[in-house]
């Protein structure tokens, strides 16, 4: 009975033959395969990324941002972040990925101490900014952990070497910008030797201070330096206010001296001319000239002598009526 029921079973489901069912299944399978192939081949590259396409494990091409396609099973795409990243040093904390971020207890000043050229120590903290420039070289050189370690080693060694060429006072005060520029240049040169497709874009010194044990003394020295600068500024301002007046007074005295010199010179030249004229007159008439000079001299003397009395040489007394100096007559 069962055999009869099986032999009478109808394979035509909903009026379709087995061939049609198999064709439909193959169509569905083909669509699934096509969808998988499309899904495997298509990928999206974000605006801050580039995709490195590897064909059989070897570099093939670099794809820019947008919707891209690759050969499934043959090509492999590696997305590389091209945006700028920063690393806080000397600890090596990457702000974007939090890589190698130490605990707060381990971020002590002892790790950030750098020996200066005069054998003092300074606490130096700085930021390094970097980015990938050639993704095809980068993926074959480093992974994210390795690049952080390389940058950390290069940055620390470079900063220790450069700070070692400057004194503690220069490092803490006037040479900060120079140290930062020199460190940036040397770090760029060091990464060129790796040929890893990355570059340092900027370096910023954040905190350059003395150790806590000597910070009060350093602050006292800075206060003294600032006081010295203030005193120098005040003295310079006072000098600038007094110096123009002194120069004006000196110029006035010089002009007065020059005027007096010219006046005395003119007077001397006039006296010389007068004497020369008298000398010429004297040569022409010596006696007359001598008599004239005598009279002129006596005139000047009498003009300053006050009251004058002129006596006759034959006068026997000042008062003629009084016979002074003669014997009295007998009565």
SSE arrangement:
Layout: H1 2-7, H2 18-41, E1 42-45, E2 49-55, E3 58-63, E4 66-69, E5 75-81, E6 85-89, E7 93-94, E8 113-115, E9 121-132, H3 135-141, H4 144-163, H5 168-172, H6 176-194, E10 198-209, H7 215-284, H8 286-303
Antiparallel strand pairs: 1-4, 2-3, 2-5, 6-7, 6-9, 8-9, 9-10
Domain Band: 40-222
Family: Belongs to the band 7/mec-2 family. HflK subfamily.
Keywords: Hydrolase, Membrane, Protease, Transmembrane, Transmembrane helix
What descriptive keywords fit this protein?
51% helix; 3 domains; Tetrahydropterin Synthase, Chain A; alpha+beta; 3-stranded antiparallel beta sheet; 5-stranded antiparallel beta sheet; 19% strand; 331 residues; disordered N terminus
Number of distinct beta strands: 10
Number of helices: 8
DSSP strand (E) fraction? 15-25%
Shape: rod-shaped
- Rounded to an integer in angstroms, the radius of gyration calculated over CA atoms is 57 Å
CATH topology of the largest domain: Tetrahydropterin Synthase, Chain A
In helices, the fraction of residues equals 40-55%
Element-by-element helix/strand order: HHEEEEEEEEEHHHHEHH
Separation, N- and C-terminal Cα atoms: 231 Å
Main sheet overview: 5 strands, antiparallel
Name the CATH class of the largest domain.
Alpha Beta
Low-confidence parts: 1-13, 100-106
Structural class from helices and strands? alpha+beta
CATH 2nd-level architecture of the largest domain: 2-Layer Sandwich
Question: Could you report the average pLDDT, rounded to the nearest whole number?
Answer: 81
CATH homologous superfamily caption of the largest domain: Band 7 domain
Number of domains: 3
């Amino acid at each position: 009975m069962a055999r009869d029921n099986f032999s009478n079973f109808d394979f035509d489901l909903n009026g379709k033959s087995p061939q049609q069912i198999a064709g439909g299944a193959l169509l569905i399978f083909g669509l699934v395969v096509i969808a998988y192939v499309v899904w495997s081949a298509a990928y999206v590259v974000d605006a801050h990324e580039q995709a490195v396409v590897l064909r059989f494990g070897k570099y093939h091409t670099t794809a820019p941002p947008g919707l891209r396609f690759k050969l499934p099973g043959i090509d492999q795409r590696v997305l590389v972040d091209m945006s700028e990243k920063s690393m806080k040093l000397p600890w090596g904390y990457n702000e974007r990925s939090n890589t190698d971020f130490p605990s707060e207890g381990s971020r002590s000043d002892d790790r950030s101490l750098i020996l200066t050229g005069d054998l003092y120590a300074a606490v130096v903290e700085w930021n390094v900014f970097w980015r990938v420039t050639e993704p095809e070289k980068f993926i074959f050189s480093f992974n994210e952990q390795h690049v952080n370690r390389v940058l950390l080693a290069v940055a620390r060694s470079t900063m220790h070497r450069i700070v070692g060429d400057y004194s503690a006072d220069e490092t803490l005060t006037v040479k900060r910008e120079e140290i930062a520029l020199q460190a940036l240049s040397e770090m760029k040169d060091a990464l060129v030797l790796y040929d890893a497709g990355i570059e340092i874009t900027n370096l910023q010194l954040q905190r350059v201070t003395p150790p806590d044990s000597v910070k009060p003394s350093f602050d006292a020295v800075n206060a003294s330096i600032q006081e010295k600068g203030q005193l120098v500024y005040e003295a310079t301002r006072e000098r600038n206010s007094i110096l123009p007046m002194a120069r004006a007074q000196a110029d006035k005295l010089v002009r007065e001296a020059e005027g007096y010199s010219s006046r005395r010179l003119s007077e001397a030249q006039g006296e010389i001319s007068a004497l020369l004229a008298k000398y010429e007159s004297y040569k022409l008439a010596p006696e007359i000239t001598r008599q004239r000079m005598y009279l002129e001299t006596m005139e000047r003397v009498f003009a300053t002598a006050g009251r004058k009395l002129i006596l006759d040489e034959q006068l026997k007394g000042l008062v003629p009526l009084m016979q002074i100096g003669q014997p009295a007559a007998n009565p």
